[in-house]
Amino acid sequence: MGSRSSHAALIPDVENIRRETGFSQASLLRLYHRFRALDRSKKGYLSRVDLQQIGALAVNPLGDRIIDSFFPDGSQRVDFSGFVRVLAHFRPIDDDTGVRDPKQPEPLNSRTNKLRFAFQLYDLDQDGKISRHEMLQVLRLMVGVQVTEEQLESITDRTVQEADEDGDGAVSFLEFTKSLEKMDIEQKMSIRILK
Amino acid sequence: MFLLLPFDSLIVNLLGISLTVLFTLLLVFIIVPAIFGVSFGIRKLYMKTLLKIFAWATLRMERGAKEKNHQLYKPYTNGIIAKDPTSLEEEIKEIRRSGSSKALDNTPEFELSDIFYFCRKGMETIMDDEVTKRFSAEELESWNLLSRTNYNFQYISLRLTVLWGLGVLIRYCFLLPLRIALEFLSKHVHLMCYRICVRALTAIITYHDRKNRPRNGGICVANHTSPIDVIILASDGYYAMVGQVHGGLMGVIQRAMVKACPHVWFERSEVKDRHLVAKRLTEHVQDKSKLPILIFPEGTCINNTSVMMFKKGSFEIGATVYPVAIKYDPQFGDAFWNSSKYGMVTYLLRMMTSWAIVCSVWYLPPMTREKDEDAVQFANRVKSAIARQGGLVDLLWDGVDH
């Protein structure tokens, strides 16, 4: 097993990561150990295969897309800071950010950023809009085999119509945000790390 | 150099005393109870003390960590995130079911927000899943003073370092030699016990051709006259025994023997299953480090004038066979045990009260099965060799009425 130190100094670039993600030192330590556990061949980074090994992720309808979110811009590797940056979207929203310095970039786990993350799961080609075709694909993944193709099409049409305001047949990010404004995103998109 | 002389004798004395103490302790606390199968409960006490020490050490480390304002890394086997009690599959079913019941035209409902649930679930499994958790190295929650198994040992204070140092000392200078000594002793103690038994019976044994003594990974085959055969052979070498589990006194002796050496015992019912027997013996024999198996293929005791047909089972295994012939001189004591007539205790009594037991043991050169012989022919060949050597009559009767 070796004499692995648990000190946070072991994590590369830890201060920057802390500032950017807002995770506590303890949480970062846990996530770091998790990262190392997933990195079975001890490469120092994760590849798609490492994440695909997680059995529970394979049964998730959005599994592949979630994995893709770790590898933006066609990259094939994700290091620890990239790993944590994605996970930071799911940090519960801090209550104490009443007055935030507007010059600072928005924290990764803000409501807007959570919504943006979800939006990107729909928007495969990253053009800023969820087209009807993209909506159909996600629907097929989630609602699945019980439903006929016609039913899928009709649901897609309905959903897009409800959200689409400017009538361009696609859902932009603003329209997406608007249609979900009443929803408690904070609760649905948050994961609490135990102390 | 001469200045060392007075210290020399002191050191030698100390060494002598400590060794004596060690061996006495060894004898009293380990060997004697082992013989009687009694446990002093020392090991349990030892474990309890160790556990208390480990818990204390962990507390100290926590305190040390708090002082430095750092977090101690504690591996939680319960997982690192707060999870919903429902599983993914259940939720999917729930969503689809509720969807289909809501709509009037029976189409499942879908909302833009449904994606959030799956997204979060997926992230949760990335952060923490059951399977990967099991595969990462076992992390002890409390430090067990071995310092090879803990991450937090940088938080050690002085006291803890001393304790750790003491632990190292104890482990390397005390437990290690103790365990080596035991390992070494057990073989010799075994031999000693047999020799004592032999002396008890005033047996005078002449060993012939000791250069042919059985080696590891082979089978030693001998003609069987009395249970004393075992003692006689075992006092001259290390064997693993094969035999039936007996009840009564023999059973007790057998159990005691098993503790000292690896033997192969069979239940009565298992003996009938030839294949099982053969398999177990083969496994034992193939392990070259194991002691040679001692087999008496005749099964029952013969009155030492003839060698009945050897049962072929032991010869099928295909290992090297070292035949041994045992012949008792009847003038001084009749060692024959008629198990249908006498019980074990009566027999022993008779043995003890006879003048002496004189016998000769011949170690014959090793034999292996030839390519064109089958097990029966091989068995016969070995039997003839033994009979010839011991001057015994070679019989064909295998002792069982078919």
Structural classification of chain A: mainly alpha
| Mean pLDDT figure of chain B | 66
Order of helices and strands of chain A: HHHHHHHEHHEHH
Please compute the radius of gyration of chain A using only Cα atoms.
Answer: 19 Å
Q: Tell me which protein chains meet in the greatest interface and how many residues each side has.
A: A-B, 62 and 53 residues
Secondary structure: number of strands of chain A:
2
Keywords (chain A): Calcium, Cell membrane, Cytoplasm, Lipoprotein, Membrane, Metal-binding, Myristate, Nucleus, Phosphoprotein, Protein transport, Repeat, Transport
GO biological process, one term (chain A): positive regulation of calcineurin-NFAT signaling cascade
Family (chain A): Belongs to the calcineurin regulatory subunit family. CHP subfamily.
GO molecular function, one term (chain A): calcium ion binding
